[in-house]
Amino acid sequence: MPFKKNHNIINKNSHSLNPCDRICFIIPEYMNKNIVEKGTKIQKEQAWKNLIMTEQLRGRRLVTGLMSSMFSVSNKLHRTIYDAENTENLPGTLVRQEGGKEKGGKTVSEAYDYSGSTYNFYKDVFERNSIDTRGMKLDSTVHYGEDYNNAFWNGTQMVYGDGDGEIFQRFTKSIDVIGHELTHGVTQYEAALEYEGQAGALNESFSDVFGSLVKQYTLKQKADKADWLIGVGLFTNKIKGIALRSMKEPGSAYNDPTIGKDPQPGHMKNYVDTTSDNGGVHINSGIPNRAFYLVAIDLGGYAWQKAGKIWYIALTERLRERSNFQKAANSTYEVAGTLYGKNNQEQNSIKRAWDEVGIKIKAMK
Amino acid sequence: MKIRIERSGGLAGMSITNEMDAKDLPSTLLLTAKKIVEDQKLTPLPVKSIPRGAADHFTYKISIQDGVNQRVIECNQYNIEDDLKSLVKYIERNSKRN
Predict the structure, then answer these.
(1) What is the second-level CATH architecture of the domain A79-173?
(2) Candidate from A152, A260, A263 with C-beta closest to B11
(3) B55 vs A192: CB contact, 8 Å cut-off?
């Protein structure tokens, strides 16, 4: 039985759980979580049992808090935008809340609109209820610091600088950057990939993958029409560069006398061993980024439908704190086999893609 | 005395190094730099202390060389001490990037 360990079987007709029923389909963990939130009483009870069983099998944390919040989960988008007024005090002054009038200028609107786009992407495509699956509020602070050349996720909220006007412009400008930051929150509540070395590079790569998919989903772009760039428009026109990173051609996003050349490798033979950047988390992420790009292009159509789904299930159900590139490759291969059948187009595509970036899939059971 | 700041990480993942001779520092920051080198008993800051799940933050490697004495401190935007932060900010704004 595929997905025996991490998936559960539910009867399609009666909505009662019975592995022996004839008509069955696979329920991934995120769907169980949705059922806990939205299902009927009997469905909720069963989904809850499934989640506990799954968590126990993994030896992972118990789903603490979920029971108590079962009936207090918010199913609505709730965005809050604060203004740090060029200080480094968080969260800053409240500027706009969900449903409130547009105010605070372009930066506030971008933070508000693009965090909404990201929420909708996760909800529509993966039936995910916000960052934590329980309707977590999406808090953002804009105008952080003076000439601040960064955007970051601090474990509870998104934070955006205005840029110095020399190298960077405001960091809210790019929808995929906002998708990237919010996805760090999703990773925190799922695989919780350690922010160091290969696990950290995977953490970064998942943020790039889903950041790019948020953009593609919003634009309704097919894989072959997407730019596969992260952070287009963030550089000022003084910088020779088109974006922060290219998933299609890692290492080609910028080459400039002031900031140097994009250091990302697209193959394991060029893997960068470094102590900077938490062990090169933004550098070596080019390798899994390119693997995803290759799969998405090979499978064609909308990248979120197959490649995105496979990566999402790997992130939410297969990977753990210290997972490395090999584990990610094996997991995506395994998930593709379970979802679409062994040795079919999807699984072969994944095998070829990881092979092309220098990682051989190790055979699964 | 030479001070070297290497900042890495952030969303862009760029490594940027700035250097400055201590004689170009304002007196308060010069005092901070001297104190850091002289006080070798100062407990090194924990590099990996970041909030759970945090990402895209800046990390710093600060090297201060005063003759034969050298002090290297590694920290990040969450655990950098206020004095050190002022020193970093000043050097980043007032020196040439390497």
Answers:
(1) Roll (3.10)
(2) A152
(3) no
Mean pLDDT by 10 residues, chain A (365 residues): 32 31 44 61 61 51 46 84 97 97 95 98 98 96 97 98 97 98 98 98 98 98 98 97 98 96 98 96 98 98 98 98 98 97 96 98 71
Domain spans, chain A:
8-69, 79-173, 197-356
| Annotation: CATH topology of A197-356 | Neutral Protease; domain 2 (1.10.390)
Which residue of B11, B63, B80 to mutate against A (max A Cβ within 10 Å)?
A: B11
Chosen for mutation from B6, B52, B56 (greatest number of chain A CBs closer than 10 Å) is: B56
Residues in chain B within 8 Å Cβ distance of A277:
8-9, 13, 15, 59
Q: Determine, for residues A187 and B15 on separate chains, whether the beta-carbon distance falls below 8 Å.
A: no
Q: HEC string of chain A?
A: CCCCCCCEEEECCCCCCCCCCCCEEEECHHHHHHHHHHCCHHHHHHHHHHHHHHHHHHCCCCCCCHHHHCCCCCCCCCEEEEECCCCCCCCCEEEEECCCCCCCHHHHHHHHHHHHHHHHHHHHHHCCCCCCCCCCCEEEEEEECCCCCCEEECCCCEEEECCCCCCECCCCCCHHHHHHHHHHHHHHHCCCCCCCHHHHHHHHHHHHHHHHHHHHHHHCCCHHHCCCEECCCCECCCCCECCCEECCCCCCCEEECCCEECCCCCCHHHCCCCCHHHHHCCCCCHHHHHHHHHHHHHHCCCCCCCHHHHHHHHHHHHCCCCCCHHHHHHHHHHHHHHHHCCCCHHHHHHHHHHHHCCCCCCCCC
B12-36 confidence digits (pLDDT tens): 999 999 999 999 999 999 998 888 8
